[in-house]
Amino acid sequence: MGQLSFFKEVDQKKTQQAVVDALERYRFYKHMYFEERETSVTASYGERVGGSSNSITDQTAEIAIYNVDEKKYRHEFCENVERIVESMPRLERLLIKERYLTVEYEYITDLHVYTFVFDPPISEPTYSKIRWRAFMRLATKLQLVVKKDGD
After folding, report:
1. pLDDT by residue (tens digit) across 89-101?
2. SS3 assignment, position 147
3. Cα-atom radius of gyration of the chain, to the nearest Å?
């Protein structure tokens, strides 16, 4: 009974959008080259308002920290998504991999997946149920579940 009340509290549209956004971020991180930031080697002269600020910044250190931390964050995010997807039941895993994680077909549709990828093909309502279960599994493990506002 507790599980049913949990699903009643979930905002399905917002949760689904959060998962889709996370999967798009996965594809971006996984397949786009990370361009490291570089320090500026030319001095820039400009008017200083307010005199001395007594603050010291180390641009090189900040950029180096960003480059290392951002690469690590992206790598860990992708590994986490992959680990979650690999632990899913077979049909959920197939759906997520083929529809959201592959880059071979940039604009693959749900219709293509449930008609041509699933063997034998499945109906749209069955596909929607499998997708929702997969999304809830991802949302729960990635802490993306959005609860409904109080009615």
Report:
1. 999 999 999 999 8
2. strand
3. 22
Q: Which helix (H) or strand (E) holds 80?
A: helix 59-86
**What was the pLDDT predicted at 60?**
77
pLDDT-derived band at 57 (thresholds 50, 70, 90) equals low
Token digits of residue 86: 């690999």
| 96 Cα distance to chain centroid | 12
One DSSP character per residue, 42-62 reads S----PPTTS-------HHHH
Evaluate if residue 46 carries a pLDDT over 70: no
> How close are the terminal C-alpha atoms of the chain, in Å?
21
What does the pLDDT read at residue 1?
A: 44
The pTM assigned to this predicted structure is 0.74
Question: Max Cα separation, the chain?
Answer: 73
CA geometry: angle at 31 spanning 28 and 33, to 5°? 90
- Sequence-distant (6+) residues with CB within 8 A of 57 are none
C-alpha to C-alpha distance for 59 and 40, rounded to whole angstroms: 8
